[in-house]
Amino acid sequence: MTTECTQKSFEFHSLYRREVKAEFSGGKLTSDGGALLLRQVEARLGVIERFAGCFSDYRKPEWIEHSVFSLVSQRVYGLALGYEDLNDHEDLRRDPLMAVLAEKEDVEGEKRRQPQDKGKPLAGKSTLNRLELTAEQVSEQERYKKIALDPQAADRALVDCFLDSYRRAPQRIVLDLDATDDRLHGNQEGRFFHGYYRDYCYLPLYIFCGRHLLCSRLRRSNIDACEGSVQELERIVRQIRERWPKVRIVIRADSGFCREPIMAWCEGHGVDYVLGLAKNQRLTAELKPPMSRARARYEKTGRPARVFAHFQYQTLESWSRSRRVVGKAEYLDKGENPRFVVTSFRPGAWRARALYEQLYCARGEMENRIKEQQLELFADRTSAATMRANQIRLYFSSFAYTLMEGLRRLGLAGTEMAHAQCGTIRLKLLKIGAQIRVSVRRVLISLASGYPDQDLFRRVCQNLGPPVEN
Questions:
Q1: Is 371 left (phi over 0), alpha (psi -120 to 50) or beta?
Q2: DSSP label at 375?
Q3: How many degrees, rounded to 5, is the angle at CA 465 between CA 461 and CA 469?
Q4: Is 145 left (phi over 0), alpha (psi -120 to 50) or beta?
Q5: Closest by alpha carbon to 460, among 405, 410, 402?
Q6: What is the pLDDT of residues 254-295, one digit of tens each?
Q7: pTM, 2 dp
Q8: How far apart are alpha carbons 389 and 71 in whole angstroms?
Q9: 316: Cβ–Cβ under 8 A, 6 or more apart, which residues?
């Protein structure tokens, strides 16, 4: 075959006597037909609308072609659909389905002002980039970066999405706190080397309630893991109690958050806590009798044995008072494995074994949620130069997660994918090939006839309910 400068057709191995040839000539097609389900979730929950309301637009109205809602929608839906980079939107801006998701009336971009923009209904990477790079205070001299995010409003919006997910106030909620590493590969602002992770990174703080994300705070890594936790808890608990004044709140975290300020704050504000406690010689000495019983059971049965105990404990200097500690005396093939947690719960409320195994160990599920957001919704895509820009990127990922969680909670309830992770939901439910036909009266999206999970798609549509009229 003669070499062409721009190859338009591609030949592959023949199928018996038939040639196999491919061309990019299918017309208006998309690989994201299932994203209509996300739009249906947005119509019910208003996740993106809330987030868009956190931006202030200082552009001149007569020059605006893309509203803030359209820009934010484009970015959030892009992350949910697996497009992590702004460069992806140089091609996505031509996609009529993405224009439908972004609520663009001119679905095909026929009414754009500039000739070079005809056929491109959505914004390109340079326009979207202004959402991240606009300063908190916009000067009158600023020419391009004029869409400023209010971080406090975004924080409140995440908690509001959580509160609105309940029809009535629960009796008790558990807030899980954890820090993780966000490795950096450039010279971003706030870049430090972390000894535990052995790399340059940020150290973001996450707060979840079950699968609901309430806080994602980007931080430098040259700090203690719990730094800023009390301030985040203060605002979140205050906002929750404004809506649910009688709800019982429990704080749960590993030993990195076992600090006097957090425990004292909880005790002063009627919040219970269960926190991991790093072992030391005094604690292991308290656990010697239970450990002896655990060892005897192990030697008798040859299987791992656990014995639980609780006692009052106070540090020599750092704690202001004595507190209840639950100890797990575990004996394994490799020997002793003592573990400890400190709690505000009295023995009558939670017995030692149940508190450790049922309440404290359940915090491990939060780590799955963090991995889900970082690996599948690109929360670690923090390659901008400034901390503010990278925090805004983290917000975009957080609201994309909230939207996907809404699809999982509402659309996938009662299905075999009710507990699926975001990456699986995207692959099996959102990535559907489709043809798009636009007329004056309708936008017809013909989904691939060979899509294997049509029954699941129908079930999700039924769960999400009828369309919401604009």
A1: alpha
A2: I
A3: 110
A4: beta
A5: 410
A6: 999 999 999 999 999 999 999 999 999 999 999 999 999 999
A7: 0.94
A8: 16
A9: none
